[in-house]
UniProtKB/TrEMBL annotation:
The organism's taxonomic lineage, starting at the top: Eukaryota, Viridiplantae, Streptophyta, Embryophyta, Tracheophyta
Name the record gives this protein: Uncharacterized protein
Classification via InterPro entries: At4g08330-like
Pfam families per record: At4g08330 (PF24046)
Organism: Cephalotus follicularis (Albany pitcher plant)
Length: 119
């Protein structure tokens, strides 16, 4: 949830970019960044920008706190150029070009009450 106002951002660890866990993990954590392949975009407001790379700043929908960035990056260089350029193919979960970099210091842990499911 948002570190400023507590608004649920619905970040899911199943959508984390675990490919950076390894040699680059320490560098990523030192920068205070957690990467995700997918987020609930309805929980954020966005501003577009960037001169050479398309970059989107992500803000908390409720309070406007800067949460992170969405950079359009190459995730898997082994994907064929034909697959990367084709818009007619369904998303395979591998060749997408979006990574959401979320600032750890902009978050607060969700309480167990927020995560409970009523039966």
């Amino acid at each position: 949830s948002c570190g400023s106002c507590g608004y649920q951002l619905n970040l899911n660890s199943c959508n984390r970019n675990t490919s950076v866990i390894g040699s680059k993990y320490g560098k990523s954590i030192k920068r205070g960044i957690i990467s995700f392949f997918a987020i609930d975009e309805s929980r954020f407001t966005k501003t577009e920008g960037g001169l050479f790379r398309r970059r989107t700043k992500l803000f908390c929908y409720k309070c406007g706190n800067h949460i992170g960035n969405n950079a359009h990056k190459e995730i898997n260089s082994s994907c064929s150029p034909r697959l990367r350029k084709s818009h007619s193919l369904a998303w395979d979960g591998i060749c997408d070009h979006r990574i959401y970099d979320i600032k750890i210091r902009a978050l607060q842990p969700s309480s167990s009450e927020d995560l409970s499911v009523s039966t």
